[in-house]
Amino acid sequence: MSHRFTLFLLTLTLACLSLSNTGCVHITEGNSLGLLAIPIPVSPYFQKGKEDEFWEAERYDSVPILGPITAGGPATALDEPSDDEVMRAFERAKPTQGGLPFLHEIQLNDVRIVKEKIADYIDPPRVVPLIGPAQLHHAHYKCTIYYSQITRVGWPIPHTLRDEEAVEVIYVDHNHFHMVGNVDSGTSPNY
Questions:
Q1: Segments in 60-153 forming alpha helices (H)
Q2: How do residues 112-143 score in pLDDT, each as one tens digit?
Q3: Residue 154 CB burial class (10 angstroms; 0-12, 13-18, ≥19)
Q4: Buried b (16+ CB within 10 A) or exposed e, 21-56
Q5: Which of 34, 45, 87, 107 is deepest in the core (most CB within 10 A)?
Q6: Position 23 pLDDT exceeds 70
Q7: Structural domain includes residue 50
């Protein structure tokens, strides 16, 4: 055998032995997933994207179903959009997170949010599939975001851009259903 082939076999043997002793690959212990047991690193960019997707689906993408509107009760929307919801809508409209460190970075400082209700109305009753008779309650908000933006560019000529009086307007809609008529909650009455 040639010297190179012997060196290759020795290197391959040492690699197999070192992998079997790391704890990531269990060649000698009971049941194993084989190569699927080796952890695969995930970029923080993709991890943050999945976390944001879950956060928004859990908190903002569902339409709640409330009880019927009582006579003399408030027919106005009770909750305005949270600051988190406004900033996430702002991020979707104008991406500022991320960037490339030391090449192009954006900072938002002194953020102030002003929320105004511009519309609040209720649709007439109708039958909605999987819900039954219901009314859709609409609430529209105009959210004005005042902030100072600092943009740092590092290449080809390093410089910093400052916009001390930046203003953005975001429109947020809050919709929810109100049941109509006698609502059967699904529980049996106690006699």
A1: 83-93
A2: 999 999 999 999 999 999 888 999 999 999 99
A3: middle
A4: eeeebeeeeeeeeeeeeeeeeeeeeeeeeeeeeeee
A5: 87
A6: no
A7: no
At residue 17, does pLDDT exceed 90? no
Q: What is the residue range of 157's domain? A: 72-179
The gap from C-alpha 155 to its chain's centroid, in whole angstroms, comes to 31
Residue 152, in any domain of the structure: yes
Is 135 inside any structural domain?
yes
Amino acid present at 87: M
Coil/strand/helix, residue 42: coil
pLDDT score for 169: 96
Residues 148, 110 contacting (CB under 8 angstroms): yes
Total number of domains constituting the chain:
1
Reduced to 3 states, what is the DSSP secondary structure of residue 140? Answer: strand
DSSP class of 69: P
Give first-to-last CA distance, the chain, whole Å.
93
Residue 67 covered by a domain:
no
